[in-house]
Structures are given as structure tokens and as C-alpha cells.
Amino acid sequence: MVWLDRMNSAINYIEENLDGEIEMGEVARRACCSEYHFTRMFSFITDIPLNEYIRRRKLTLAGFELKNSDIKIIDLANKYGYDSPNSFTRAFQGMHGVTPSEARILGVEIKSYAPISFLITINGGIGMNYRIVEEDALTLFGISLTTRREESFETIPDFWNKCEEERITYKIVEAGHGNERTLLKSVLYDMDNEMMKYMIGLDMPEEGVSDEFEVVTIPAKTWAVFPLVLEKPEDSITSIWKRIFTEWFPNSGYELDEGSWQERCHWRDDGKMIVEAWVPVVKN
């Protein structure tokens, strides 16, 4: 209940200030976590980046005002933080499919996005194994993809398929002196509210690699590690990532630290594959 109250307090603050200045420090303060943790947690729980949620809510309210008042478009643009009527019109048309002037015409449809609220749901009945580890800095090499965060659940599997079809994964294993049992790692890094990079790779060999590969250094961190045994076709690491933010973080005493996220695989003694989600954490 405490976590729900904090999250809803943060959302209430955003809603109360959609026509003014939204201070992200105050949003995070109400949620009792860092700005970094709140923005990442919000996007995982809601499947929408925080800045996109705010944009949609502002344009929803602007649409209501256009339908129900005679406010000037220039005043509406200024009210919701746009530096000119033209930039407001582009954003409005991008979401609603019509211009602000057209939205005033009787019978013209526009979109409405309701405020988010966090409610109690029945979950957490399934066990979730994890461990906390400290690890020294690590250097990886591989091939990367730059993608939009909200599209990543589609673009990343496509990227894996492409790398396997074009034998790029084989080249990575060969450069890392692996064999047919070698399992590749992946890392998400250079993340902001909209974009991120995703690398498929391996640990850097002592002699280095050729310039065709990208190199990423992951600093020493404390990690929460969540293993998943792949036993059924429907088993997916995607489900673990969702549960980390909706089930584990709210009750763990930790929050997300800045930095990259990892996925690692290894073989169990019985021949089954284990996939692990590695998340950088700090005590809150």
C-alpha cells in the first residue's frame, strides 16, 4: 500500500502541473526514489516513457479546451509549454490526426488519454529467485543496435534473428575464442527516456578484437541477478524484466542504479539453459 500511495502521489503531482512546470525532482521525491529509478520503473510498468505520457496528457487537456472554450491557439500553446503555435500544431496533429483549428469543428474526432493510476492487483504468487552480487568492471565487444525503447520488444528479437541469419553471432564467438557451446551475452546501455543501444557480444579477449566490433566497458557495480530456466517454449526473459519492476523493486529495499543492464546465459548441469537478467542496484 505504501508503494501505491507514493506512485499515485507522484502521478497526482504531474496531473496538477500539466499546465505549468513539472519538476522531476519533486516527482521522484513523492515516489521516494531517484529520478533515474522513477523514469525507468514508470516505463516498464506502464509500457510508455514518462515524457510521452506527459505529452499525451497535455495534448488531451488541450483537446478538451479546444472543444469546450474559445481560448486562442497561441494561448493554449503557451499554457502547455510549447514555444510557438506551429510547434504546438505539429504535436497536436501528430497525436490527434487533425489540427487544433479542425478539432473545434463539430463532429471531428480527437483522442483522449486518461490519467494513469496505480491499483492493487493480485500477483506475486509465483516465486522469483534472485541474488545480489558485486562485480568488477567488465569490457565486452560485439555488434549493437540503436532502437526506441517502446519498440525494443520487437526490434531486439529481429536483431537477434538478423545476426544469426548473417552469421554475425558466429563471428563474435570466433573472435572471443568460443565454441559451439559458447553462449553470448547482451547489454542495454546509453539509455535515455526514448532511445537505447543493445549489444550482442562476449567478454573482450586479452589481445583485443578488430575494428568491426563495438566495445563497451561496464563499470564495477552491485547487481540484482534474476535467473530463468528455459524449460518451455513460452519461457521468455521479457517476462522477468516486467516482474522485476512491478513485483521485486517495490518491496526489495533497492532501487535502480544508473548504468547498463545485462542478459547472460549459461548451461546447467542437466543441459538446460539458464538466462539471467542483471540489473544495477543501490540501497534506497
Automatic annotation (TrEMBL):
PROSITE patterns: HTH_ARAC_FAMILY_2. Residues 8-106 form the HTH araC/xylS-type domain. GO terms for molecular function: DNA-binding transcription factor activity; sequence-specific DNA binding. The keyword Nucleus does not apply. Keywords: DNA-binding, Transcription, Transcription regulation. InterPro entries: AraC_E-bd, Cass2, Homeodomain-like_sf, HTH_AraC, MarA-like, Reg_factor_effector_dom_sf, Tscrpt_reg_AraC-type_HTH. Pfam families: Cass2, HTH_18. The keyword Cell membrane does not apply. PANTHER family: RIGHT ORIGIN-BINDING PROTEIN. This is Transcriptional regulator, AraC family.
